[in-house]
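Researcher: Go.
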Amino acid sequence: MCKATFALVTVALVFPSFLESAATRSLSVQNLEDGVEVVVDGHVTEPAWTNIEPYTDFTQQNPIEGAPASERTEVRLLLDQTTFYVGIILFDSDPSQILVTDSRRDGQLNETDSVQIILDTFNDNQNGFLFGTNPVGIEYDGQVAGEGQTGGTARRSGRGGARRGQVSGWNPNWDGNWTVRSAITERGWETEMAIPLKTLRYTPGDNQIWGFNVLRNIRRKNEQVFLAPIPRGYSIYRVSLAAKLEGLQLPGRRDIKVTPYGLGSTGQDNLAASNQTQSDFEIGIDAKWGVTPNLTADFTVNTDFAQVEADEQQINLTRFPLFFPEKRPFFLENASTFSFGAPQEVDLFFSRRIGLESGIPIPILGGARMSGKLGAYKVGVLDMQTREAFNARTGDLIAPAENFFVTRVQREVGRSNFGGIFVNRQQTGATSPELAQNNRAYGVDANIQLTENTKLFTFLAGSTSSGELGTDYAGRALVTYATNWWSGHIGYTQVGERFDAQAGFVPRRGFRKPQARFFLDYQPKKYPWIRRLSPHVTWSTHYGFDGLVETSSGHFHFVEIQPQAGGRFGATLDRKQDRPVTPFSVYSDPSGDAVVIPPGFYTWNEWTLSYVSNPSAPFFFDLRYKWGDFYDGDLNHYSVTVNARVGAKIQASIGWRRDNVKLPGGDFETDLIPVRFNYSFTTLMNIQALVQYNSQTADISSNVRFALLNRSGTGLFFVYNDRRNIANFTRIDPDTGVVVPNLIGRSFVVKYTYLFDF
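Model: Structure:
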């Protein structure tokens, strides 16, 4: 593995990346005269706007790549010593057909008329700040790193919701302090954005250059147009193709933000041996300091995340742990700075290890983070301290007090970067230093742009643990290629049998894994109702160090058709193999009965039919049926999700997943039913509910949140949690040995946070 990685890095260094073939477009910003103010009201009509010559030359990416936009868009830019202003008029030949499907902060922008801008404030062709909105003026923002790619993965722009919390090159969980207003008018719709310079990071001085691009989505036509053209295989995250804002006069940046919180809670835990009802009050504080215009320090004391949405439950029919995304804002801001490895396979740092143990919150005493740029280097340092935690029901220790330390450095060269990471997890507190457990993970990586369309992602990592595991290594090399009509990758990953990144996410170790993917993105002009034909194939095999296949997966998506109006349908064959060496439980119910897969080598096929209707419609559906073998038995899987919208204020969905499994060791079926509801009173005030039924645990859980936001995601939150037992038999809790009551527990939390921006 080391030789293969070294060879690929050597080739990459010998053959540098090609220059972009398209000429870069140059733009300028009008400086506001002293005493002239812009009133941000969603109407681009003031003299400060109308006296500027707008930028109007937009080009389609979809549905007809390279064609002029079907509707006119005018972009105007203003700058003063404190604020960057963007005024956009989005003309529409039929304003009555403007589509708005969401009015929540950070709501979806793909299924609504919308506009997004990106600012590459360091002009490094890799990173940027993204701001977006729709005709009702929602705030949508995030950070882009590495042109939206981390470890060979990429995300589409404009997506929130379920994708939030995925650590990648696109981080929608960054909440900037800025203002936006939109209005539907007789000429279409228009929007004004006021972005304080202290919200951004940049290099101060005269004649500075920023990258800048604009994406408009005209949803009823399913049309996307760009100010600086982007090929169809990419998104607005491709900042290397952005236009250039030249001649910027930028002042020094001062940024001090303080966000204190107060929290009151009352709760009932009916499985606790004593003190089943408890009330509490807590205070804490977060602070942000712009140490330099390029470097920001964050501090947190007595951190609490009571307002964060509950995890969505999953059914696990494998012998490996499931991945649950991070949702806590403090850890998600600048998360891409600390990412290292192969996402969800060899993550050297996974922030859910801090303050969570099997989904149970662990008190966080406090911590600090510094991230940003030092010259050409992108740097990040994080240190967090947790308290010890005990099970309230049994008194057993859940987790000892621990310290987590991470430092990350990357050197950016063009569209490539090279770097390293060090991660330390150390037990602290009452445990003696001689007996304290510790784990360290470290590594170097290189993400190298070989050509305009080809990129190499490679890393070599090691881990050292106290105890029996000792030291071992892991590494990967992955080459990706993307054009406007096809993309793919080929790669190799190896993880040692004793590799152990305890502050990361490594669901399995002791394997060698080759992998490959081919994805076709073809637009047949002969059939105008078809937007895309996207058949694709993905294959990977995990081999043990003895050369035997441990698991294998071949995903053959023979048919995937995307209609012009939106949605998709298709047919898939999955061919799988697995070789468990010890028995494992594939299912257990609340009564304690289990279905076990014995050791052996299994090969099976699964067929899937899927259909997703137009997601911009008031009602749309996601249907999936899977059937075939499952180990040495049979599987039938049904999945139905019904989504509904009433204007932009109400979104609701109900899903149902059923798995019917027949095995020699026993038959079982599982049901998972999630119900979601959102009502937005305004773009900054909403109530959300998530109710989930899981037949495997025989529980119904509820999470209801009311948010009245102020700035940058702060404000007043009311949160209610409830968990109930609905088993039709007497359940005994395995921890306490007591009968599980109908009401297992509930809590009510009130939290208020306020941003002081100096």
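Model: The longest strand covers residues 666-682.
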